[in-house]
Amino acid sequence: MEPLETTRKVSGEPSSVGQVSEQRESLVHVRDLRKSYGDFEAVRGIDLDVWRGEAFGFLGPNGAGKSSTMRMIGAVSPTSGGTLRILGLDPATDGPAIRARLGVCPQDDTLDTELTVRENLTIYGRYFGLSRAECRERADELLEFVALTEKAKVKVDELSGGMKRRLTIARSLVSKPDLLLLDEPTTGLDPQARHLLWDKLFRLKQAGVTLIITTHYMDEAEQLCDRLVVMDGGLIAAEGSPSDLIRDYSTREVTELRFGPDVMLADHDALAGKVEDLAQRIEVLPDRLLLYTDDGERAVAAVHERGLQPAAVLVRRSTLEDVFLRLTGRTLVD
Amino acid sequence: MALALENGRRMFDYWLTVYKRTWKGTMISSFLLPMLYLAAMGIGLGSFVDSNGTGALGGVSYLQFIAPGLLAATALQIAVGESTYPVMSGLKWQKFFHSMIATPLRPADVVYGQLAFIAFRVLSSCAVFLVIIALFGGLKSPLGILGLPVALLVGMAVAGPIAAYATTLENDSGFAMVFRFGVVPAFLFSGAFFPVSQLPDWIEWLAYVSPLWHAVDLSRNLSLGTVNPWLALVNVVYLLAWFIVGTWLAVRGFTRRLIR
């Protein structure tokens, strides 16, 4: 299957690939969006727009409100306040019309394990009102796309985790959606399976499908997302492209200093005092010091000039993970 | 309404596909057990009953007395079976209901599709059973064939409420209660095997409350040619009321569980 066939072309509208900036059409428009479950406020007023053709990411620790937001965008969860427009429609009144144009890849595979791989696709097409013949044709194309053609007649029970994820993604594409929602698409997969999925998602993006992705994985966000928000405690803590976020919330480089296993946390605090002026920001961890600076090598040289002898030194570029940890803290949230 | 029909039809396809894989397993509960009851009670116990005179039964053979009721009871069991574990599976175990409502289908459509499938199961199983009953000479009048729509009606009457109850559960232990305190007593005491007038008054009244008694009574009167139109109307209206209220409850339960 050619990737271009995966997106439904809206009549009279040119492909949006590469033209995002010229004609920005908001597929998801969110203002002061809220969601409460009883007394608990899962989403506490967020604003964002997802433009046609982009890959948009939600990052955040568990309980940040990502999944609640995704469910509202999926038009299966009523909002508790604020404005939400999906594909220009109001989910409160046009839920079925919106869902007809969405593809949803939920966090857990909700596949029917009693049925075969192919039946899972053909049945799902029927829910969208495709004819049986269209369903069969679509199923064969999609099996090819996610490299499961050989497994077509196998029961879902017998698939590996990675194959199930691929099948779930294929299923979400049955209706040729304008907007694809992926809730933690690669959680629990091995590296090979993750890279294969990233490849498929990248091809969809190239074909003009708008993607919305939630993830815990920073490398996944950096790989896939044009733009993302970091959510924390039901609010948006930061928004931008991965490089913007790194520029705004971290430094270009990070110097990691390890002083060996005998050096205690208290000593780390003392050591930090000695080098604090060499970095824009410094972070003390049990096993190492992190110096956030635009020139890591210069910081290393300066550390040595002050007579300090770290056991190991690593200079690396800042990543989204640094941004994430800065914004959402290192404390475990459960 | 047209939309609900169309959406229900899309969902019904799902159940048919599943049934193509599982129908062999349902043969035992759908046919074999009722057949055994028919043979043991109708023919075995029946020959004993018949030889002592069946005045209390209205002078018909015991087989003819129980067969229409057994048909209705079979419908009830199939309907309850299909509205318990499959509902729990869709909501919780395999979660396929959640994937259905991510499409244009609404929770109500999921309910309609499920009910349509239950109707199919009840009709197809009971039709076969009815043929067997007829071959054994269990029908006194050709009107006994109308036991089939009655079987459908009682199946639909219980499917909605049971499915609604299933949406309130977190695990399947509640279903054992349904079978122990609902299905089995209804099966034994709703007049399928003996007239409920034989029972103590308070149990007799419990029987009148149960939808199965109404189905058994109607099915039997049709087969024996003893229909009282007014009583038949009460039977039908009572079962329809269960069906309508039950379906409404099921839609409400599915919506609460799926849309959060």
From TrEMBL, chain A:
GO terms for biological process: response to antibiotic. Keywords: Antibiotic resistance, ATP-binding, Cell membrane, Membrane, Nucleotide-binding, Translocase, Transport. Residues 1-11 have a biased composition (Basic and acidic residues). SMART domains: AAA (SM00382). Transmembrane segments: none annotated. Residues 28-258 form the ABC transporter domain. It comes from Kribbella pratensis. It comes from the Bacteria. Pfam families: ABC_tran. It is a peripheral membrane protein. This is Lipooligosaccharide transport system ATP-binding protein. The lineage of its organism: Bacteria, Bacillati, Actinomycetota, Actinomycetes, Propionibacteriales. Residues 1-25 are annotated as: Disordered.
UniProtKB/TrEMBL annotation, chain B:
One of its GO terms (molecular function) is ABC-type transporter activity. The chain crosses the membrane at residues 30-49, 61-80, 115-137, 143-166, 178-196, 230-251. One of its GO terms (biological process) is response to antibiotic. One of its GO terms (cellular component) is ATP-binding cassette (ABC) transporter complex. InterPro entries: ABC2_TM, ABC2_TM_bact-type, ABC_2_transport, Nod_factor_ABC_transporter. The keyword Lyase does not apply. Signal peptide: none annotated. Keywords: Antibiotic resistance, Cell membrane, Membrane, Transmembrane, Transmembrane helix, Transport. It is a multi-pass membrane protein. Residues 25-257 form the ABC transmembrane type-2 domain. Belongs to the ABC-2 integral membrane protein family. This is Transport permease protein. It comes from Kribbella pratensis.
